[in-house]
Amino acid sequence: MVFKLGKDFNLEGPHLNLKEFNPFKNKGPLTGWYEMGFEEQDAWEEMTEMALTLIKEKA
User: Fold this and answer.
1) Are 17 and 37 in contact, with CB atoms under 8 Å apart?
2) How many whole angstroms separate alpha carbon 4 and alpha carbon 2?
3) If DSSP codes are grouped into helix, strand and coil, which group holds residue 4?
4) What's the CA gap between 46 and 53, in Å, rounded?
C-alpha cells in the first residue's frame, strides 16, 4: 500500500515499517510517498487516516 505523507514525514516512528516509494527503474523515489508491505496490512487503515489528515492540514 502506498501513502502520501509528505517530504517532512519522520520515518523513524516506533511502529512504522515504511520505505520510500520508488516505482521507477532509472529515477529516485517519489518525494513524500511511502509504501508499506502486505504483511503490515493491519496498519493500513491507521496510515490512511494519517495521510488524509496530513493532506487536509496542507490544504
Assistant:
1) yes
2) 7
3) strand
4) 11
Distance CA 18, CA 47 (A): 10
pLDDT tens-place string over residues 5-46: 988 887 776 567 889 999 999 999 999 999 999 999 999 999
Q: Rounded CA gap, 30 and 14, in Å?
A: 23
Q: How much is the pTM?
A: 0.81
> Distance between CA atoms of 31 and 20, rounded to whole angstroms?
8
pLDDT at 13: 67
- Count of CB atoms situated within 10 Å of the CB of 44: 13
